[in-house]
């Protein structure tokens, strides 16, 4: 079997690592890949937005399965284009990827499907938005409708912050096209957790829960990032409650998308806020989260390509997931300054030593391999991911691995997993 993975992050390294374990896989390509994917696959210099280039490459190499990692190629219709060319591609069509690509579309689908979510208004002019804001008062959450690399959401605790957010979106045009439409939402309080489900258009099969850490500094301080670490399972959503939660936040979406004639296939990622009134959906992603993917794939014992093919063929009802009992936890090492500006090119050493620890994998993200060395080449550089008998042991093992790495001008959070341990009363 030949596989093409699209993307260049830690998620894509984890996908390549997991898919390479399948005995009949002869070749894996990653476009464009990173220093880590180069060690388990062949990197090909095609951008994730070059849909025609990706289709041509997949045809030329007679690829059997294409696995897009990030949202951009999905919203650009890579699944539709591959399908047209007769190539199996795991993920949602462009029509379904709109669940991530447009927050107003997602809100409308949720409302139609009866999925619990924050009340919201949708605005295309500042004047209308001002009327809503005056009526509701702070705190409010202001969201750019389109893709904004995780930066288009502003939690505004005061009226001043709400106005500054509206300035940014309508006046300063900070997010370009993405903020020509703006959502203003009710502020929800609670603990966040992610539920990712494999979907085949009709059936949703949930993976265990995971928790991301979006803020750059310890105790959720500082600006939001792509994700500074993740672990699974999250005690706030135990395995015993996964299917009941999928009934609330995933299956109704599948029913609604099928009713619209655009059945959802791929990963449906529900970002949840566990409020005192029950779970509410903050957002949908239409792909694996990064870094949630890294601990989740370390726990998935089933053959991943097999599940993906069942999703594409619409036969997921025949599948059950084999999940590792142990917990998994990943800590992201970033370049200093991220998510602002940061230096590049620092050499990284100790990856082999960290991976020599039992149950530890280092998934690389912003790296490149040059003359036998691994150099930092992005904001999120790598994610040290470890299995452990329980969350506390997985955490200890991941930080033990991280301590064996060295890179100048690096930073990381020291409290990944802390909320889960608190809930288990282990800290
Ligand atoms: P999103 O991209 O919509 O998940 O938003 C990014 C982050 O903003 C979430 O992970 C939450 O921490 C926060 N957030 C989004 N919507 C709300 C809301 N309605 N109330 C409180 N926080 C929110
Ligand atoms: N970790 C959150 C995301 O991938 O969007």
Automatic annotation (TrEMBL):
Keyword list (alphabetical) reads:
ATP-binding, Ligase, Manganese, Metal-binding, Nucleotide-binding, Purine biosynthesis
The EC number on file is 6.3.4.13
Protein's UniProt name: Phosphoribosylamine--glycine ligase
Q: What class of enzyme is it?
A: ligase
Molecular function via GO: ATP binding; metal ion binding; phosphoribosylamine-glycine ligase activity
Every copy of the ATP-grasp domain together lies at: 107-313
According to UniProt, this protein's pathway is: Purine metabolism; IMP biosynthesis via de novo pathway; N(1)-(5-phospho-D-ribosyl)glycinamide from 5-phospho-alpha-D-ribose 1-diphosphate: step 2/2
Task: For this entry, list what GO says about its biological process.
Answer: 'de novo' IMP biosynthetic process; purine nucleobase biosynthetic process
**UniProt cross-references to PANTHER family, sorted A to Z:** PHOSPHORIBOSYLAMINE--GLYCINE LIGASE (PTHR43472), PHOSPHORIBOSYLAMINE--GLYCINE LIGASE, CHLOROPLASTIC (PTHR43472:SF1)
Catalyses which reaction?
Answer: 5-phospho-beta-D-ribosylamine + glycine + ATP = N(1)-(5-phospho-beta-D-ribosyl)glycinamide + ADP + phosphate + H(+)
Q: Which family does it belong to?
A: Belongs to the GARS family.
What cofactor does this one take? Answer: Mg(2+); Mn(2+)
The record's section on InterPro entries has: ATP-grasp (IPR011761), ATP_grasp_subdomain_1 (IPR013815), PreATP-grasp_dom_sf (IPR016185), PRibGlycinamid_synth_ATP-grasp (IPR020561), PRibGlycinamide_synth (IPR000115), PRibGlycinamide_synth_C-dom (IPR020560), PRibGlycinamide_synth_C_sf (IPR037123), PRibGlycinamide_synth_CS (IPR020559)
| Keyword Mitochondrion set for record | no
Q: Tell me what gene encodes this.
A: purD
Q: Which domain of life is it from?
A: Bacteria
Keyword Manganese on entry: yes
Natural source organism = Mailhella massiliensis
């Amino acid at each position: 079997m030949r596989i093409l993975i699209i993307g260049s992050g830690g998620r894509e390294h984890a996908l390549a690592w997991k898919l390479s374990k399948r005995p009949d896989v002869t070749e894996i390509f990653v476009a464009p890949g990173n220093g880590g994917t180069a060690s388990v696959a062949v990197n090909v210099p095609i951008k994730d937005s070059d849909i025609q280039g990706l289709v041509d490459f997949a045809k030329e190499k007679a690829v059997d399965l294409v696995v897009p990692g990030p949202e951009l190629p999905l919203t650009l219709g890579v699944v539709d284009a591959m399908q047209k060319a007769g190539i199996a591609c795991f993920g949602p069509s462009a029509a379904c990827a709109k669940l991530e690509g447009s927050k107003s579309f997602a809100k409308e689908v949720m409302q139609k499907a009866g999925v619990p979510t924050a009340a919201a208004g949708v605005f295309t002019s500042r004047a209308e938005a001002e009327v809503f804001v005056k009526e509701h008062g702070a705190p409010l959450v202001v969201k750019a409708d389109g893709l904004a690399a995780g930066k288009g959401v502003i939690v505004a605790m005061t009226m001043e912050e709400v106005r500054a957010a509206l300035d940014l979106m309508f006046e300063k045009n900070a997010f370009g096209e993405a903020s020509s439409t703006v959502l203003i939402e009710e502020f929800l309080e609670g603990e966040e957790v992610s539920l990712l489900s494999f979907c085949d258009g009709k059936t949703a099969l949930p993976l265990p829960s995971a928790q991301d850490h979006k803020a750059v500094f310890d105790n959720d301080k500082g600006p939001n990032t792509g994700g500074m670490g993740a672990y699974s399972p999250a005690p706030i959503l135990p395995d015993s409650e996964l299917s009941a939660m999928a009934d609330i936040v995933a299956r109704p979406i599948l029913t609604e998308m099928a009713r619209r004639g655009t059945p959802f296939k791929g990963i449906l990622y529900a970002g949840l806020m566990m409020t005192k009134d029950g779970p509410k959906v903050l957002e949908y992603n239409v792909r694996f989260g990064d870094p949630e993917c890294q601990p989740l794939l370390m726990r998935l014992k089933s053959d991943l390509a097999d599940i993906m093919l069942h999703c594409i063929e619409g036969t997921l009802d025949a599948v059950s997931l084999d999940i590792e009992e142990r917990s998994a936890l990943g800590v992201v090492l970033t370049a200093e300054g991220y998510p602002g500006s940061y230096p590049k090119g620092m050499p990284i050493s100790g990856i082999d030593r960290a991976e020599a620890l039992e149950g530890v994998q280092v998934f690389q993200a912003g790296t490149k391999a040059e003359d036998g060395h691994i150099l930092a080449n992005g904001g999120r550089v790598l994610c040290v991911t470890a299995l452990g008998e329980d969350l506390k042991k997985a955490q200890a093992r991941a930080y033990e691995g991280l301590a064996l790495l060295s890179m100048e001008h690096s930073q990381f959070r020291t409290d990944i997993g802390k909320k889960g341990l608190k809930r288990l009363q282990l800290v």
